[in-house]
Design brief:
150 residues, alpha+beta, Alpha-D-Glucose-1,6-Bisphosphate, Chain A, domain 4, eight-stranded antiparallel sheet, 4 helices, globular
């Protein structure tokens, strides 16, 4: 489910994964993040993470059309396995703040993403497609979690 809040230029997405909250949480903080992050057809070239409050992350990826995109930021909150908050710089927009929560949902996890502070509706909508579009980050995360379980 995607909710777009027009006046705040924020984005809220909820997605269920067939993995424990700890596994979904850890997928966001490991160097393997680059294996699933990005829109459809993107390939991560370099990823670094320091998963602690004040720690930095950075990623360089090649998009399906050959362009290079860089994403970086700082971890604001890390509460295992319930919550991650971080700044998000890059991917065609200004700085935003990403907050993720992970709740048990039967044998799986309900992950909620809230991204706020977009500089335009176009940037917000582009990020929605990058997270939630067909073959994009969350579909790739689902496949990554399935492989990791096997």
């Amino acid at each position: 489910m995607t909710t777009i809040i027009e006046h705040a230029l924020s984005l809220e997405i909820s997605r269920r994964f067939a993995a424990t909250p700890a596994r979904v949480f850890d997928a966001w903080l490991s160097a393997d993040w680059g294996q699933w992050l990005g829109p459809r057809g993107a390939r991560c070239e370099k990823a670094s993470v320091e998963p602690r409050v004040g720690g930095r992350y950075a990623m360089t990826m090649t998009l399906a059309d050959g362009r290079t995109a860089e994403v970086s930021g700082v971890y604001l909150e890390v509460v295992r396995p319930k919550k991650i908050a971080l700044t998000w710089l890059g991917c065609g927009g200004g700085a935003s703040v990403l907050t993720l929560t992970f709740e048990p949902d039967g044998a799986g996890t309900l992950m909620k993403l809230r991204q706020e502070g977009f500089d335009s509706a176009e940037s917000r909508d582009g990020h929605n497609e990058g997270w939630n579009g067909e073959g994009a980050s969350f579909d790739r995360l689902e496949a990554f979690l399935a492989r990791a379980a096997g």
